[in-house]
Specification:
The protein is of the alpha/beta class and 411 residues long. α1 runs parallel beside α7. The protein has nine helices and 27 strands.
Length: 411
């Protein structure tokens, strides 16, 4: 009797979620996870926050225990890289020389941190993996001045952690506000003020020209002057790990592996999920690549269901969060550039929800310290609803009361 084998390439949340789904939905063949990480799959969000504090244990937050993988007969090939995929032959070559045949393959290789060119110093670090975080944590405990290059979520989270540890932090960002691509200029300005109030020196509209390493410090030269630091943390975005798929001839575009709504790539029996996948979204009618923990969790589960023969489109509203200082930023949905911005709450009080309104439909909400608004909007986005700006501004009307009630529902 031939035993079927499903192989998952990648060791993040999408991979772990897919493996768990295969087993929980009755797949009794071989499940193999191939990961170039030395650790079992773990959560990445804590790495830029609590993990960096000296009182933390310095261990990754595992998604599943080692016992769970053993109990569910899932083969873990850690510290192993998939080097070549032959989609036609249904095989993948590994860095240890082994070749694995597969019936179905899931590519969940995620992304890697973008590094600065021509820099190779133990004092210039990135933050993506557990190994990265260990290096940053170790260095952070011994330094005084920290320069963070990039005002995105990783940069801002790491800066908030470092300044809370008493470090002198300079945050350098090209845009006119922190987190501007995600939040827009108005809300980005609010978070810029939050960081400055906490003691972070924020340099905006700033282009890094070079980094010079001296015996005593790192000198960051910019078009707006120089910054001296003991540690430079580069938060300059990420690059999707598409090389395996691209070399195999799979369709790749817009920075990701192209899939349909069922996570199927252009090659038969080869699927992709998580940060690396540009999946067709049935509601938005376009391919989207999303780099968020929650999306990867659900995407891995959806891909596994389709590997098992189900026809379930992946249709998520893409929710994410970021903890900075005592504040939690959350967003759900996808806005258009010409959507109307409607504010509920107070920017000055750091308690608000900023809704994007297109006609009479909500397309997105960004919330600061208002989780209930985000939860209600998440349930609302893909349903039929009709709201006005006045209703959204009116805090006496709960967001979850804005959707039309099903026929027969009690008021």
């Amino acid at each position: 009797m031939t035993t079927s084998r499903h192989v998952i390439v990648g060791g993040g949340v999408a991979a772990a979620s897919a493996a768990a789904t295969l087993r929980s939905h009755g797949f009794d063949g071989q499940v193999v996870i191939v990961s170039d990480d030395a650790s079992l799959p773990y959560e990445r969000p804590p790495l830029s926050k609590e993990f960096l504090k000296p009182e933390s244990e310095g261990l990754p937050t595992l998604l599943k225990s080692a016992d769970w993988y053993a109990e569910n007969d899932i083969t873990m090939m850690l510290g192993t890289r998939a080097t070549q995929l032959d989609a036609n032959a249904h095989s993948v070559k590994l860095s240890d020389g082994e070749t694995l045949d597969f019936d179905k393959l899931l590519i969940a290789t995620g992304v890697r941190a973008r590094r600065l060119p021509h820099t190779n110093s133990p004092r210039i670090l990135t933050l993506r993996s557990h190994a990265d975080a260990v290096q940053v944590r170790t260095r952070l405990a011994t330094v005084d001045k920290v320069a963070v290059l990039g005002g995105g979520f990783i940069g801002c989270e790491a800066a908030s952690t470092a300044v809370a540890l008493g470090k002198r932090v300079t945050l350098l960002e090209r845009a006119s506000t922190l987190m501007e691509p995600a939040l827009g200029p108005v809300l980005g300005s609010v978070m810029t003020d939050v960081h400055r109030a906490a003691g972070v020196r924020v340099m905006l509209g700033c282009v890094v020209l070079s980094i010079e390493e001296t015996p005593s410090a790192l000198v960051v030269r910019t078009d707006k002057g120089t910054v001296e630091a003991d540690l430079v943390l580069v938060g300059a975005g990420s690059l999707p790990n598409i090389e395996l798929a691209e070399a195999a001839g799979l369709k790749v575009d817009n920075g990701g592996i192209i899939t349909d709504a069922q996570s199927r790539t252009s090659a038969p029996d080869v699927f992709a999920a998580g940060d690396v996948a540009a999946a067709f979204h049935p509601f938005y009618q376009t391919h989207l690549r999303v780099e968020h923990h929650d999306t990867a969790l659900h995407h891995g589960r959806s891909a596994a269901m389709n590997m098992l023969g189900h026809d379930e489109p992946f249709q998520e509203a893409h929710w994410f969060w970021s903890d900075q200082y005592a504040h939690t930023i959350q967003q759900v949905g996808r806005a258009h550039s010409d959507d109307q911005l409607v504010l509920r709450g107070s920017l000055d009080d750091l308690s608000f929800s900023a809704f994007s309104l297109r006609g009479d439909r909500i397309t997105r909400v960004i919330s600061l310290n208002r989780p209930k608004d985000v939860l209600a909007t998440r349930r609302l986005l893909f349903t039929e609803h009709h709201v006005t700006a006045e209703q959204l501004e009116d805090e006496s009307t709960p967001v979850n009361r804005l959707a039309p009630r099903p026929r027969g529902a009690r008021a």
